[in-house]
Every structure is written in C-alpha cells, then in structure tokens.
User: Fold this.
Amino acid sequence: MSVDVAIRKELRADDRSFRLDVAFRSEHRRIVLFGPSGAGKSLTLRAMAGLLSPDEGHVRVDGRALFDRDAGVDLRASERGVAYVFQDYALFPHLTVAQNIGFGLHRGWLNPRRGIHDARVRHWIDAFELAGVAGSYASRISGGQRQRVALARALVAEPRLVLLDEPFAALDPALRGRMRAELLALQARLDLQLLVITHDPADVDVLDGHTIELRDGRVA
Amino acid sequence: MDGIWVPLALTLKVALWATAINLVLGVAVAFGLARWRSPAREVVDSVLTLPLVLPPTVLGYYLLVLLGRRGVFGAWLDRLGIELVFTWQGAVIASTLVAFPLVQKAARAAFEAVDPQLEDAARVLGLREMAVFFRVSLPLAARGITAGALLAFARALGEFGATLMIAGNLPGRTQTLSVAIYAAVQAGDDRTAGLMVAVVSATCVVALLLAGWLAPGRARRVRS
Assistant:
C-alpha cells in the first residue's frame, strides 16, 4: 500500500494568502501528519479526499491517480474510494446511528430507512458495541460512541485507506487513551492504511507510524 | 352561505397551486443562490425580492404586459391555445409571483444554515451532487422551507391587487375571497363580507401560528 502526494495550492481570503506546498510518499501502514494548527494538515487531507482541488501536482494511492493536474485527472470525492473521518465526526443529525452507518451503502436519492437491516451495518454495530443506541440520533449519544459511529460509517464500504482528521481532539483525556488503543486494535484486524493528522505529540507517540511534520504549508 | 363556498374553494385551489409551484421554484432558486459564489448574487436576490415591496397593482401590470394577448409571452402562449388573462390559472400566476420571495428567502436562510461539512461527508461516502441535495441539504433545511411555504400560503390566500389586474372579478371563475369581499362591500352586503373576512383571518392566523412553530430558532430549542 502506498500513498504518493505532491500538491500545491494558493489560497486567498480577504488580504491574507496561504501557500500549501506539500509532498510526501509513504508505504507505512500508519502515516501521521503532525503540526500546529494552520500548518495545512486539514487542507492536505481535503485535497486527498477530493474536497479541495489543488492548483498543481498529484495524489496517488496504490499507484492509482486520484488527482493528476498534468494528466487531467481529478476524480470526484464520491469516486475516490477513500474514507474520511471528520474532526467533529459530521454525523447526520437527521438520521439514526444505524442510518448513519449504512449511509454510503446505497448511493441513490433516498436515505436508508429507519429500520435498516443490512448485514454490514449489523457487523459494525456489534463490533463497536453500538446495539443499544442503533436507533438513537447522533445528538443523543456520547462522544466515544460518536467517534465509533463515524469510524463505522467510514469502514462499512471496506476502504483501503482511511483519512482521520484529529480523531481524538474532541474527546476527554480518559476516553482519548481508550479510543487510541481501539483504533490500533482495529487496524491490527483489518487490511487498512491509516493517515492521521494531529497536533498532539501524544498521538504521534502512540500511533508510532511514519510521521511527517508540517509547518506553514510545507513539510518541515 | 352559498356565496362563500364558491370563492373559498377557488381561493384554496389558487393558494395551494401557488404554494406548490413556489416550493419547487423557490427552493431551487434558493439552493442555487445559497451555493453561488459571485458578487452578482445579491443583485439577483434584490430583484427576486421586488414582489415583496412593489405594489401588487404594479406586479399585475407587469403580468398583463408579459402575459396579455398582445404581450411578449402572451402572443406566443395564445398560439399554443393557453389563455391566462381572466382565468383562475392567471390568479395562480399572480399569487405565485407575490408569494415567491417568502419561500425563496426562508429556503435560502435554511440552506445557508446547513453545515457544509455534512455535505462533504456525504460526498466522500460516495454520493453525487443530486443525492447530496435530496439526502442531506433538503432534509436539514426542511423546517425552514416549510415555515416559508406556510407564510407564502397565507400571503397567497389574501392576494388581491395583482389577481384583480390579471384574473379580474368573475364570480365563480376568478373571484377569490379577497376580491369577493371587495365586491360584497361595494354591493352593501355587509353580512357576507364579514363572514368572508372572518374565514380569511382565521385561516391566516392558523398558517402563521404553524409557521412560527416551525421556525428554525424554535426547532433548535425543542431538539436540545
């Protein structure tokens, strides 16, 4: 499994401008993008997922070009097959836990029904011990459960690469330790490459992967 | 009593059609405006708000110029055999135009309040833009849109000026309640006029109460 990223993007807002110029390659199963806020970590992740279009460069995963300015390749976010876990999870507030997890399984114009029955959804509800809250709305469940739902929703489509944006920042310290261990245990069971962005040195230690430090929009 | 039922049924028919058309048209335009990044956006928004501030007779005059038999579109519609002046369909067009900004403004505010990250989440989960709209943006904006539609319905119920200009005052065919009230007062039939006034007032109060109950601020309080 390999990730090969080289992107450049000039961003302007009001009078300020920010230049993102990030390049890295890795075949490690855990890639950690580490740096202070404003370093360009989230922008890099958004560009990989197809939520931001770089001015130049390429994004390749396992040799498949998701974006390549020179070759004119720019796959939609919906076609990249890359999973994304948002910092505050971005769970759909109008859907139940089970509906959230099954959201991406069907891509038509209708949401899954409230009483969704699907073996894949069932599997993740059981794996993350969410059976008790499967019918609850996201606003009614705890922080740890929210993160598990976000992970389950990302994993249900069996992606090879999962991008995680500050996955532990929204959790209280006690829960943070547990969820880090849970994520590592999960990866040990699955054929999965993780790309985690964090500002927290403790995450870097625990994840023990290929750490790439970003500062002011560049690899330090 | 007979004097009331015919205009009441016609009024409800016209107001429901106008609201239905605005739900499609107003929501589509509002979604486009909420997502459109251009300086021209506020200009378009202002033009679309005009029906709210222009005198209804002015709107009616515009409609006559456009849709009348010798009008810009009217001549073309006439060849297709479509007649809008002095018909209930003309009254629908008048009510739709007058109530349009109420749906459009409410829907735009509702779409702008939807967290863009939720739409991004749907995209990375494999949804195309239309699916994102129907499965995330629209359901999350539904309360605000419904509140706007109820206001538009109430406004359409009371439409008078533009309706009179384009649809006229033909009892049983284009005479809606508000036009019938005017006719009854002119004819000195105060009892019928009073009854119709009470019906329109009560319906509008109910619609406004529902709209207020559905307004986004209230929705948040109930859910948290």
Q: What stands out?
A: The interface with chain B takes residues 49-51, 76-80, 82-84, 86, 88, 90, 92-94, 103-104, 107-111, 139, 153, 157 of chain A (CB under 8 Å). The first strand of chain A starts at residue 3 and ends at 13. The radius of gyration of chain A is 18 Å.
